[in-house]
Amino acid sequence: MGGIRLSPLRLFLMVLSVALGSTLIGGDDSTESTWFLRIKSELVDPNGALDNWSRKSHICSWYGLTCSHDQADVVGLNLSGSGLSGFISPEFWHLVSLGTLDLSSNFLTGSIPSELGKLQNLRTLLLYSNSLSGKIPEEIGLLKKLQVLRIGDNMLSGEITPSIGNLTELRVLGLAYCQFDGGMPLSIGNLKFLVSVDLQKNNLNGLLPEEIHGCANLEYFAASNNRLEGAIPASLGNVKSLKIVNLANNSFSGSIPVELGRLSNLKYLNLLGNELSGEIPSELNQLVQLEKLDLSMNKIVGTISLFNSQLKNLQTLVLSDNDLAGSVPNNFCLNNSNLQQLFIARNNLSGKFPTELLKCTSLQQLDLSDNNFEGDLPSSLQELQNLTDLLLNNNSFSGNLPPEIGNISKLENLYLFDNFIMGRIPPEIGKLQKLRSIYLYDNQMSGLMPRELTNCTSLTTIDFFGNHLTGNIPETIGELKNLILLQLRQNELSGPIPPSLGYCQSLQILALADNKLTGTLPPTFRFLSELYTVTLYNNSFEGPLPASLFLLKSLKIINFSHNRFSGSISPRLGSNLLTVVDLTNNSFSGPIPANLAMSKNLTRIRFAQNHLNGRIPHEFGELTELNFIDLSFNNFTGEVAPELACCEKLQHLLLNNNQLSGRIPSWLGDLEELGELDFSSNNFRGNIPSEFGRCTNLLKLSLQNNNLSGKIPEEIGNLTSLNVLDLQRNNLSGSIPTAIQECKKLFELRLSENLLTGTIPPEIGKLTELQVILDLSNNFLSGQITSSLGNLMKLEILNLSSNHLQGQVPSSLAKLTSLHSLNLSKNDLQGQLPSTCSEFPLSSFAGNNKLCGPPLLSCLYSKRPEKKKISNAAAAFIIVAIVSTSALICFILIYIMMRMWCNLTRLSISTSDGKGSDQERIREEETWAVYDHEEKKRTGK
């Protein structure tokens, strides 16, 4: 065929057209630019990425577009990361030449238009990292040439459409980080060219389909963080090309399939966080390419049956959080091991420290924590020269910390807490120049803190809590410029805080509580600008607080309680971050500074047991985050500041043992979160506000030892959470309200020393949780003791003394088997006591004259019939008769005694030598003659 001949004019016009850059591709009838401009109209482009999309320029020069070699068609659109928002236009379906569509990493919303299914030439579709919603359109399955589909990291939901199984050319499927649910489509097995599947972080459920083995070329398979369940299919072992399998954090159960041992190309296997059981299959030792294996957080039992001697490429082995037992196998390691991380924490492994691991000289991280290992730590630990992290905490290791540990020169983190390690901290620890964290807490270590420790200038964390360390904190502590946490609580340290501590300017947490430290706070405290927690309680610090303390802008928690600090509390500005100030049990005096209220985030103020005085600052009402105020045992006066009503989050308000006066404010009833209210031992007067009934979260209400009067309000029954009610030693009157029966969680009820009248309401018997005490003593209660008290089976102390109770002691009290103190004294009770009362002393019943039975007198004795009364005359006759009879008996007795005396005298004379005997006998006879004469005259004989 001959060539087409063009006239010179026609040829010139064609060249001019190309030179000027036509806005249409493929001739004047092309409309692609029109469709692209329509697509642009539905997008928001704050960064101006599409500014050159205009008919003024050639379409192939537009941002993000790729044309074919002959510039006849647009074959690619890449607008990834352009900051676009808006919708994906359905007009895309007109761009039938597109092979690549990439709108990833933007802010697009709306759904994926089903019209995209008409792009028959599309090979790559990338819509990931947007805010798309809705379902995957079924029409996606029409894209027969599609090889890469990545639409994850969106808000897509619903089931994964089975039509995906029609994408037989697909190589990459990325659906991770969405909200897909339902099961994995069985049709996924049709995708024989599939290389990568990422389904992580969805809500997929059901079984992992056996059809997965149809993906014969699959190398990467990740379905972690879903709700897949059932057994891991054995057919997964037939996908020989697999290199990475991640099924972590699902609900797979059953045993680990032995077929996984066939995956000879596998480098990464992660099954953590499932419910797998059984033993570790020894077939996993055949995975010679394996580099990382994670079986942690399952229910695997048996022993460790994996051997680094076979898994020569293994770098990371994680078996933590299972039920493995026994010890580490003797042949676990080879000298040429590549193992770098070994984590077998939180199992039931036992025995001595596994010295077999010392052959794994490549180890960088070793975690044996939370097992049952015991015995001494071997000095040969120093052979692990590459070790950076050694975690042996929560075992039963004992003996001393070997000095050779100082030779592990790369060690950064040493965790030995919660063991039985004794002895001193070896000075050789100071050789660990890279050491960042050392945790030795909850052991039995003693001796001094070695000065050499401060050579470890990389240290950020020191935690020696709960040991027996003595002596001073090293003076050179200030050398640790990077120190963030210094925890020395519960030791026996003494001496002052070294001034150099102020040079640890990175320090955030300082915990020196529960020691024997003394002295004042050093002025260098002002340099601790990062400090946010300082706890010094239970020491013997003294002197005033440094004025600079409250200038530290990062302070959140101050606890200096139980020391000997004195002087005034005088914050100048106050930290805006301050949440807790506890100065309990010191010797602070003077008023509370009002500018403490400048710390607007305060949640706890505890100044109890000091010598503070003045009024409670009304500025505290500005502290709307307060939930705990304890100003008890001070000398505060005046009324409760009404501004405290603004502290709506208050849960604990303790103002007891002060000299506060006035009425108890009714606005307390508006503090709905109030759980503890203690106004006891003050000078409050007036009624108990009925508004208390609105404090339905109240657990403790203590108003004892005031001058309160009036009745106990019925609204007290609304306090259904109340555990303690103490109203004793007031002037309350009226009866005990029956509504108290609604306080069913009461375990302590004290109403003694008031002016209460009426009977003990039987409804009290419904308070079956009463345990500590029921004290109604020293009132004017009358009537009988209600038998319902026998329902208080947990009660330990019952005091009803000093009332006007009558009648019998109910037998139901015999059921109070927990009772160890009973006081019914000073009442008008009568009758027989229940048998169980015999266990209590007499004083428990004193002042009830008509009571009987053990431990009192027998009721049989007390019930003998009374003798009839006789007249006065009869009584006088009886008295005369008794007196006469008594006199007669006396004379007779005297007579008998005299005769006996005479006989004895005669006997004495007859045995004597006769001198003076006649005169004595005559005198005796005259005496008896007179007696006989008087006797005859009296008797008339």
TrEMBL record:
<dbReference type="InterPro" id="IPR003591">
    <property type="entry name" value="Leu-rich_rpt_typical-subtyp"/>
</dbReference>
<keyword id="KW-0723">Serine/threonine-protein kinase</keyword>
<feature type="signal peptide">
    <location>
        <begin position="1"/>
        <end position="21"/>
    </location>
</feature>
<dbReference type="InterPro" id="IPR055414">
    <property type="entry name" value="LRR_R13L4/SHOC2-like"/>
</dbReference>
<keyword id="KW-0677">Repeat</keyword>
<dbReference type="GO" id="GO:0016020">
    <property type="term" value="C:membrane"/>
</dbReference>
<dbReference type="InterPro" id="IPR032675">
    <property type="entry name" value="LRR_dom_sf"/>
</dbReference>
<dbReference type="Pfam" id="PF08263">
    <property type="entry name" value="LRRNT_2"/>
</dbReference>
<keyword id="KW-0547">Nucleotide-binding</keyword>
<keyword id="KW-0067">ATP-binding</keyword>
<dbReference type="InterPro" id="IPR013210">
    <property type="entry name" value="LRR_N_plant-typ"/>
</dbReference>
<keyword id="KW-0732">Signal</keyword>
<keyword id="KW-1133">Transmembrane helix</keyword>
<keyword id="KW-0675">Receptor</keyword>
<dbReference type="InterPro" id="IPR001611">
    <property type="entry name" value="Leu-rich_rpt"/>
</dbReference>
<dbReference type="Pfam" id="PF23598">
    <property type="entry name" value="LRR_14"/>
</dbReference>
<protein>
    <recommendedName>
        <fullName>non-specific serine/threonine protein kinase</fullName>
        <ecNumber>2.7.11.1</ecNumber>
    </recommendedName>
</protein>
<feature type="domain" description="Disease resistance R13L4/SHOC-2-like LRR">
    <location>
        <begin position="163"/>
        <end position="270"/>
    </location>
</feature>
<dbReference type="Pfam" id="PF13855">
    <property type="entry name" value="LRR_8"/>
</dbReference>
<feature type="domain" description="Leucine-rich repeat-containing N-terminal plant-type">
    <location>
        <begin position="34"/>
        <end position="68"/>
    </location>
</feature>
<feature type="domain" description="Disease resistance R13L4/SHOC-2-like LRR">
    <location>
        <begin position="701"/>
        <end position="830"/>
    </location>
</feature>
<keyword id="KW-0597">Phosphoprotein</keyword>
<dbReference type="GO" id="GO:0004674">
    <property type="term" value="F:protein serine/threonine kinase activity"/>
</dbReference>
<dbReference type="InterPro" id="IPR053211">
    <property type="entry name" value="DNA_repair-toleration"/>
</dbReference>
<keyword id="KW-0812">Transmembrane</keyword>
<keyword id="KW-0418">Kinase</keyword>
<feature type="transmembrane region" description="Helical">
    <location>
        <begin position="873"/>
        <end position="896"/>
    </location>
</feature>
<keyword id="KW-0325">Glycoprotein</keyword>
<dbReference type="Pfam" id="PF00560">
    <property type="entry name" value="LRR_1"/>
</dbReference>
<keyword id="KW-0433">Leucine-rich repeat</keyword>
<keyword id="KW-0808">Transferase</keyword>
<dbReference type="GO" id="GO:0005524">
    <property type="term" value="F:ATP binding"/>
</dbReference>
<keyword id="KW-0472">Membrane</keyword>
